[in-house]
Amino acid sequence: MSSNSFAYSEQSGGGEATELGQEATSTISPSGAFGLFSSDLKKNEDLKQMLESNKDSAKLDAMKRIVGMIAKGKNASELFPAVVKNVASKNIEIKKLVYVYLVRYAEEQQDLALLSISTFQRALKDPNQLIRASALRVLSSIRVPIIVPIMMLAIKEASADLSPYVRKNAAHAIQKLYSLDPEQKEMLIEVIEKLLKDKSTLVAGSVVMAFEEVCPDRIDLIHKNYRKLCNLLVDVEEWGQVVIIHMLTRYARTQFVSPWKEVVMAVAQLYWHISPKSEVGIISKSLVRLLRSNREVQYIVLQNIATMSIQRKGMFEPYLKSFYVRSTDPTMIKTLKLEILTNLANEANISTLLREFQTYVKSQDKEFAAATIQTIGRCATNISEVTDTCLNGLVCLLSNRDEIVVAESVVVIKKLLQMQPAQHGEIIKHMAKLLDSITVPVARASILWLIGENCERVPKIAPDVLRKMAKGFTNEDDLVKLQILNLGAKLYLTNSKQTKLLTQYILNLGKYDQNYDIRDRTRFIRQLIVPNEKSGALSKYAKKIFLAQKPAPLLESPFKDRDHFQLGTLSHTLNTKATGYLELSNWPEVAPDPSVRNVEVIELAKEWTPAGKAKKENPAKKFYSESEEEEDSSDSSSDSDSESGSASGEQEEEGDSSDDSSEDSSSEHKSDSESASEVENKRTAKRNSKSKRKRDSEDGENENEKSKTSDSSNADSSSIEESSSDSESESESESESESRKVTKEKENKTKQNINPLTKDVSLLDLDDFNPVSTPVALPTPALSPSLIADLEGLNLSTTSSVITVSTPVFVPVKTHVLLHRMSGKGLAAHYFFPRQPCIFGDKMVSVQITLNNTTDRKIENIHIGGKRLPIGMQMHVFNTIESLEPEGSITVSMGIDFCDSTQTASFQLCTKDDCFNVNIQPPVGELLLPVAMSEKDFKKEQGMLTGMNETSTVIIAAPQNFTPSVIFQKVVNVANVGVVPSGQDHIHRFAAKTVHSGSLMLVTVELKEGSTAQLIINTEKTVIGSVLLRELKPVLSQG
Q: Start and end of every AP-3 complex subunit beta C-terminal domain (predicted)?
């Protein structure tokens, strides 16, 4: 076994080390007491035989056992030759497990791995995305410089792969290759620049991590991708979010002017004067909520809060009680909470905090009790009104039975008395008496220092204390000895008559002490205070030196200077610069050019337009006809167009804007020369030809995109376990969902442009808003001959046109409290989801709100106030209600576009006199619209949504809970789905589409033998699918 193998075993814990020991021992003594270990070797021999078998079932069983050994921490490296032979297996399941093994051991067994490098290269072309990604991971794990060119080529090819999962692994491989050969940096930067343009959330976090590792100083690579990364951030996995946020923070510090100047100060004074306090608590509320996590998370969060609370106390003052110490908290958490409570202390809450501190002082945790006493001292120095109260409380603690508490109290009192010593002579006398009982060196030294500083205020006590200390000088701690010497020197200078001989005695003892610091201090003091012919000029200033006015100690927070480290970093946690930490640069005095973040929309438009002949036939006429539409359209239609454009996705917005701008510029010159009559005659014909060409090009795009994605999804049709696919499935479906989403948005925009002269929308004309008969995807279009020629030979798969939205089969009557009558000062509000298409927009969820006036007076001017919605979310509010009579009730409708997520919509429900903060959070089942489809169409769509778009789980329940009526009632109660007719009694199918994107949601409940059933959900929106799976499972399981 190589040295690398031993090194890895030492790092990976006791399991592998034990295994190594077993192997070595069994080799030396295979019999007797070590027979147990020889049986392990026999097991491995069995595995080798199974791997060399001709049966795939035996090989698969062997690989499962080997991967199980690795998962348990056992060493399976000796099986490498037998495993690597199966890398070219035709069985997809065996091949997957072989690659899992090779990723683990390729770095240790490099020579053997190199023998199979040609197989890995062939696997990079495999139709299955998991095999392609695994081959790249194995290739990048072979740490041999000779294959660097091969790795570089593989990374470049993988960066252009259709699968986002493969591109993600390409980003991971970049970091491995850079650590192996830093000279490849320039070529790797080119790949990073390419991957930074990727629009998949799965790739974003990984490529930013590669950027931070390889070229963190190349800020210019971020310019064009800055806005895109900001938009993708909310959907990236949590570790990717951390990396992107850190990178964007560094970027912002170099590109934007300091916000502490004009803009933020203006906003700050605006908040100070007119905003409700609840607005400030958005960030603080989120941080406080994290305190419910485990102790490790609490520790990091509390450290960040401790830093922030020094500068901005108001953020956390409303959550003061959240930082009260619990008896179950570990000491590190208790100490941090004390720190935060001290930072938040003010005249208003100090009395409450002091009562809390009194309880903490009695804690059995002595370290925490000592920290509490220090906290009381800091409160006394920061808030002058309670200084005397704190001092008296600390004096009372001097009679405590616990020596540690008494010692800490003495140290804190000493610091407090430095601020106003003249007023507390009695306390100094009381502390002098404690010298007989206190044994803690720090406390004894503090008392002696206090007496020495105030020796003229206690002239009778100080000499007697010096006498007692001189008696036991040799037995004292070094810290105490130094203070005894200081006390003797000060008394020699102020009361030489009584203490001259005593001081000389102490100086003689110190002259021969074992500690050189004490010997040096003794020689220094003797030369300074005892004048002789050898004394220097300093002797005459001895009294000024020893009895000078000492500045009062400044009790500061240990977190005061941590704010120069970036919050949440290891450097901030350790309060020292860690390896790899990138410091935040200072805000620039003048903001750099913001145009560097503008994306060149012309290139995107060309990229987005399919390569068809229709566009090339007569571009001048096309530009002219479109510009004429824009110039002659009414104000109302242009307004509606702009609104729809702003609501559409960023990609569509960029592509369309380039066309519009070029069309406007080219049409202005022509419109001047054309007569009005010619424009009028051409308008209708041009409009029709434009809309037809646009539909053709869009449909061609849709077909191309769908054919690409269907190839990758068909290749990945093998079954994948739920636990391994959750993290990958979300972004795997993005390449498919993106084409459907963009096509649907462009279809809506095309419909609006077809009739630009429609000025008023009648209440009876609800066809544009009510999508009851709207198909899930576009029907199969009539393609032009040129487009058919371009698409010939491709595997086209479009959604069937018979799949339409149906009426809900069940509407639950459950309502949710929006505003309680006590919180709303008599105004109560409840909301529920009627499961009907929203009349305000086809992407909105319909919400009905019932308002009740429970008071005996009229409530006037009920309306929606400020809205705090996540990015992308939109809301259509109800009209203002002029008045609501006493005991009156009214029901109003709203529309909310939740963007296919369960994020909370926060807004204010206002009356004439008050505003109340309310929230609406949709259950995942209410984000769907039921779909009517045949069993054949269901199976067809389900076949297209396999692999990473499929999640499943097993349900166990009593047989009476698996009757068709019970299953139907439970499923439709949770989710707004339609029932699909089934020709099999043991299979129940349900179908729906998401309201925002129109993505299909297919639910299958398949009854098995006994009392079990399998719940399967197929959808492109894998996040919603997994949430729906978690909600349906307990409902179907319970009786």
A: 756-903
Question: Does residue 530 fall inside a structural domain?
Answer: no
Nearest to 949 by CA among 704, 737, 702: 737
Could you tell me which of 172, 227, 229, 220 has the C-alpha nearest to residue 200? 229
Tokens of 252: 């912002």
* DSSP state at residue 660: H
Helices (H), 567-634: 570-574, 601-608, 619-632
Same domain? For 812 and 889 the reply is: yes
What is the residue-wise DSSP string for 213-233? HH-TT-THHHHTTHHHHHHHG
Cα(948)–Cα(960) distance, rounded to whole angstroms? 33
* Cα first-last separation, the chain: 57
pTM exceeds 0.85 for this model: no
> Can you give 884-908 as a three-state secondary structure string?
ECCCCEEEEEEEEECCCCCCCEEEE
Q: How many CA atoms lie within 13 A of 933 on its CB side?
A: 29
What is the domain-level CATH number for residue 248?
1.25.10.10
Pairwise CA distance, residues 398 & 406, whole Å:
5
How many angstroms separate the CA atoms of 731 and 818, rounded? 34
Rg (CA), the chain: 38
Lowest mean pLDDT among 208-212, 252-256, 385-389, 551-555: 551-555
* Domain co-membership, 127 together with 171: yes
Compute the residue count for the chain.
1039
Instruction: Give phi and psi for 470, each to the nearest 5.
Output: -65, -30
- What's at 460, amino acid-wise? K
Instruction: Strand 859-868: give its sheet, edge to edge.
Output: 881-884, 859-868, 905-910, 915-920
| Burial class for 487, CB neighbours closer than 10 Å (0-12, 13-18, 19+) | buried
Encode pLDDT of 133-165 as tens digits: 888 888 888 878 888 888 899 999 999 999 999
Alpha-carbon separation of residue 959 from 966, 970, 1006, 1037, 1039 (angstroms) = 11, 15, 13, 11, 10
Q: Which of 907, 922, 937 corresponds to the end of one domain?
A: 922
List all residues 6 or more positions away from 43 whose beta carbon is below 8 Å from its beta carbon.
Answer: none
Q: Is residue 280 assigned to a domain?
A: no
Total H helices, total E strands in the chain: 43, 16
pLDDT value for 194: 92
> Looking at the predicted structure, is the pLDDT value of residue 909 above 90?
yes
| Residue 279: per-residue pLDDT | 60
Q: What is the pLDDT of residues 932-974, one digit of tens each?
A: 888 888 999 998 888 778 888 888 888 777 888 888 888 999 9
Token output for 95: 């091949």
Q: Please, is 953 exposed, middle or buried when counting C-beta atoms within 10 Å of its C-beta (0-12, 13-18, 19+)? A: middle
Instruction: For residues 825-842, give the mean pLDDT.
Output: 89
Question: Do residues 894 and 874 lie in contact, with contact meaning Cβ atoms separated by under 8 Å?
Answer: no
Please give the structure tokens belonging to residue 481. 């000895």
Tokens representing 450 are 């206090």
Question: What b-and-e string marks burial along 424-441, b requiring 16 or more CB atoms within 10 Å of the CB?
Answer: beebbeebbebbeebebb
Nearest to 414, CA basis, from 373, 392, 386, 443: 443
CB 472 within 8 A of CB 509: no
Compute the Cα dihedral for 381, 387, 389, 394 and give only its sign. positive
- Residue 469 reports pLDDT greater than 80: yes
Same domain, 209 and 118: yes
| Residue span of the structural domain in which 844 resides | 805-922
Amino acid letter for position 807? T
Dihedral sign of CA atoms 491, 492, 493, 494 in order? positive
Does residue 659 lie in a domain region?
no
* Distance between CA atoms of residues 121 and 151, nearest Å: 9
